[in-house]
Design goal:
4 helices, 6% strand, FtsJ-like methyltransferase family protein, rRNA_MeTfrase_SPB1-like_C
């Protein structure tokens, strides 16, 4: 990893700026193409609005650059790991606690729905 950073640092600033500009231009060109396609799709009269929207969303989804996902670093006993940019430090206890919270939320939702059903049954018996 350090060697990779040294290699990047050794590059002249001009080259880096040119590379960034090329990337930006390519993204701009791609978005222009998508804009033209989406305009042609929206101009079509024989397609429903919902399907037009779906087709345009798919085009935009393909065109937008993907952001790198977070990397989860699991901490272990006696091993020092630093969570830097794009990394999240996770330990077993934390994962279990989060899982338990999710399960308890689901349980509460089901209880509320269950009580609503019971209340409806009681109302039906009283009315009937």
């Amino acid at each position: 990893m350090k060697a990779q950073f040294k290699e990047i640092d050794a590059r002249p600033a001009k080259k880096v700026a040119e590379a960034k500009a090329r990337k930006k231009q390519a993204a701009h060109r791609q978005l222009e193409k998508v804009r033209k396609k989406s305009n042609s799709i929206s101009d079509q009269a024989d397609i429903s609005d919902r399907s037009k929207r779906k087709m345009i969303e798919q085009l935009h989804k393909k065109a937008t650059p993907k952001t790198p996902k977070k990397e989860y670093v699991i901490s272990k006993k006696g091993v020092q790991v630093e969570a830097g940019k794009g990394k999240v430090l996770v330990d077993r206890r934390m994962k279990k606690d989060v899982r338990k919270q999710r399960m308890s939320k689901r349980g509460k939702q089901n209880d509320v729905e269950g009580n609503a059903c019971l209340n409806l049954e009681v109302l039906c018996e009283v009315a009937g």
